[in-house]
Amino acid sequence: MSDGVFVIRNQLGQFWTRAAEWVDGREPQRILKIKHHDEAVNQLVELSAKDIDLRGEVLACEVDERKDPIIEASSHLTPTLAEKAAEKAAEKAAQAARLAAEENAQTQELDDAPEQENDEEEPPRTVAV
Q1: Under a CB-based contact definition with an 8 Å cutoff, are residues 52 and 105 in contact?
Q2: 70 and 63 in contact (C-beta within 8 Å)?
Q3: To the nearest whole number, what is the mean pLDDT of the chain?
Q4: pLDDT band at 127 (very low <50, low <70, confident <90, very high)
Q5: Distance between CA atoms of 7 and 70, rounded to whole angstroms?
Q6: Helices H, strands E: what count in the chain?
Q7: How many whole angstroms separate alpha carbon 108 and alpha carbon 113?
Q8: CA-CA distance, 18 to 27, in Å (whole number)?
Q9: Cα–Cα dist 73/5, whole Å
Q10: Which of 27, 34, 60, 83 could be stapled to 79 by a disulfide with Cβ–Cβ 3.0 to 4.6 Å?
Q11: Residue 1: what pLDDT?
Q12: CA-to-CA dists, residue 62 to 26, 35, 67, 105, angstroms
């Protein structure tokens, strides 16, 4: 196949990526594109050795003008890169809010704590004349 690529699809219709994860195919640029059939088969064998429940297949695909495979997206959706980035940003914001709340609580505790009196008497001050 001179003007196409091979991709790996699992039993859910999801595609394998270079980032070592399964995606639904809505973002074809993320899918692992392999030029040679034997390399794709080797990759599938390696994946199957790591996951005995995997039922995958190697598909020959035509490519579009950007060299992305022309595929049908899976009905089993996975998060897109944008959704992952938004989720990560939300997690960071929540963590920052928790840290700020903890710091605020610690500051409040210090402000509310009664000042401890110093039991030691201060020595009398002498003035040199």
Answers
A1: no
A2: yes
A3: 86
A4: confident
A5: 10
A6: 2, 4
A7: 8
A8: 13
A9: 16
A10: 83
A11: 46
A12: 16, 11, 9, 59
